[in-house]
Each structure stands twice: as structure tokens, then as C-alpha cells.
Design goal:
By secondary structure, the chain is an alpha+beta fold. The chain has helices at about 75-95, 105-120, 170-175, 225, 230-240, 245-255; strands at about 5, 30, 35-45, 55-60, 65-70, 130-135, 140-145, 150-155, 160, 190-195, 205-210, 215-220, 265-270. The chain has one domain: PPM-type phosphatase domain (Phosphatase 2c, domain 1, 4-Layer Sandwich), CATH 3.60.40.10.
């Protein structure tokens, strides 16, 4: 169960969300300027949840991908994640768009949409979701991130790089520690968010950039992945599978074999 430290307190209701690509999609093949890639995404209920509150988006022609994980500690997590993803999808698929995107503005747009809906669903506590997204263009990856979903970059001969930082109480406490210091951190602090999509005002979005090149592999995920995989194992697994489809299906299969404690969503991109 995920909670939020500062929940939305304050939008037209949508039907109950069916996660994007609820059935396994084909492996996408696409070209962006100077780079080509294969991509595959899938979301799974897991074994312990009654509803899938994850959603994801794959727009290979635009080189754009996103995942969202609705907050189970607030009402209508599935609705929150779906709204956030739909805001991004509508923007990128609008005929008038030229492909250039200000990710911070897009995240503020999604935040406002989820916040407004939260006022309708539950005026006292609102609704909320994580949101992590990136766009590949000309050898660069532009990233926007809020919450504890995340993004890994795997490159041959180098350690795995987690490109995002979890916005949790536990992570904030660790960041304050001096080198060599230790502190007891309750486990539930690892799942207590300090930021989410759905809060009042502008959302504090991490905006990042990373260079990418042919041969790199990327994994975009919700925390249903990291609840059952350690980072070292994720890195090893990324190089054991020749296609993004095989990698994603392995992650979901093993996640459920380990109890499926949460919804699990993964999007793999092989450049």
C-alpha cells in the first residue's frame, strides 16, 4: 500500500480505467533521428491486488514513454494514473504538435487534471499518482519524474544507472545522512511519497537529461518491479534477454512467482 505524505486536498469522471495495453502488445520498432529502437510494455495485476492501478504509455513514433502508479492510500488510484497518462497521450497525439515538448509544463497539466478530478472524487483528500516519462530524440533522453516509479539505463561494460530518485520519506532521510552515518528507517517510509501528481498548485517535477547510444537498454517501471527485484538482479536480467518482450515478460512472470505483492508494470526499450 502506497501512501502520500502531502496528499492532494482539493474534475468530469471517466469510466473505470482499463490499463493501457492490458493485453500484451506487439514489440514496437521505431526510428528517431540517428537512433532506432525496439520497445515493449506490459502491465499486470499481480496476485495481491483487486484492481490494477498502474497505467503506461508507449508512443514509439514520437520516442515517448511513460508509466504511472495510482496511490493505493488514496481513493481511485486507477483513475488518477489513467488521467495522467491520457493527458500526455492527448498532447503528443494532437495533429498540431511538432514533437517538441516542455515536459515540466506537461506534468503540470497532468497534475492539474488529476487535482481537479480529485476534488470531485474526494474533496477532503483527493486522488494521486506517480508519473515518470521520457522522450528520446537525437541521442538524448529528456526525463520528467514525480514519485517512486522510475527509469534504469543499462550500458555494456558499465554499472546499471538508476536515472530517477524516489520521492519518498525514506529517500529524503537517507539523503540527509552524512557519509558513514546510519539511521533506522521504518519500512513503510519506503512507500510514503513526498510528491505526487494530484497536488495543489504546480508539481515539483524532476527534469533530467541523459545521453543514449546504440546498444543501450532502458527499463521504465512502477514499484511493483523493485518490490521483488534488487537492482543487481535487474541489471543482470536486462542482459539475459535478447528482446524487450522477453525481458518484460520475464519480469512479470518472476514477480508473480515471488508473490505478486503489487501491480507490476514494465516498459523495455532496446536501442
Amino acid at each position: 500500500m502506497k501512501t502520500v505524505l502531502r496528499p492532494a486536498t482539493d474534475s468530469a469522471l471517466l469510466p473505470q480505467k482499463a490499463p493501457f495495453f492490458a493485453s500484451p502488445p506487439p514489440t514496437y520498432m521505431a526510428d528517431t533521428p540517428t537512433l532506432s529502437f525496439r520497445a515493449y510494455g506490459q502491465t499486470d495485476l499481480g496476485l495481491m491486488r483487486e484492481r490494477n492501478e498502474d497505467a503506461f504509455l508507449a508512443l514509439p513514433k514520437q520516442g515517448f514513454f511513460a508509466v504511472a502508479d495510482g496511490l493505493g492510500g488514496l481513493p481511485e488510484g486507477a483513475l488518477a494514473s489513467s488521467l495522467a497518462i491520457q493527458c500526455l497521450q492527448k498532447w503528443f497525439e494532437a495533429p498540431s504538435r511538432n514533437g517538441k515538448a516542455d515536459l515540466r509544463s506537461l506534468f503540470n497539466l497532468a497534475n492539474a487534471r488529476v487535482y481537479d478530478e480529485g476534488r470531485v472524487v474526494s474533496s477532503e483528500i483527493g486522488i494521486g499518482t506517480t508519473l515518470t516519462a521520457f522522450r528520446i530524440h537525437r541521442g538524448q533522453m529528456d526525463i520528467a519524474h514525480v514519485g517512486d516509479s522510475g527509469l534504469y539505463l543499462f550500458r555494456k561494460g558499465e554499472p546499471a544507472r538508476k536515472l530517477t530518485t524516489d520521492h519518498t520519506m525514506a529517500e529524503e532521510m537517507r539523503a540527509r545522512l552524512a557519509p558513514g552515518d546510519n539511521m533506522y528507517i521504518p519500512d513503510y517510509y519506503n512507500h510514503t511519497l513526498t510528491r505526487c501528481i494530484g497536488q495543489a498548485g504546480e508539481v515539483d517535477t524532476d527534469i533530467l537529461a541523459a545521453a543514449v547510444k546504440a546498444g543501450d537498454r532502458l527499463l521504465l517501471y512502477t514499484d511493483g518491479v523493485t518490490k521483488v527485484f534488487e537492482e543487481k538482479e535487474i541489471a543482470e536480467t536486462a542482459w539475459e534477454h535478447d528482446t524487450p518482450e522477453e525481458l518484460v515478460e520475464h519480469i512479470i512472470k518472476v514477480g508473480n512467482e515471488r508473490g505478486g505483492p503489487d501491480n507490476i508494470t514494465a516498459v523495455a526499450i532496446y536501442l
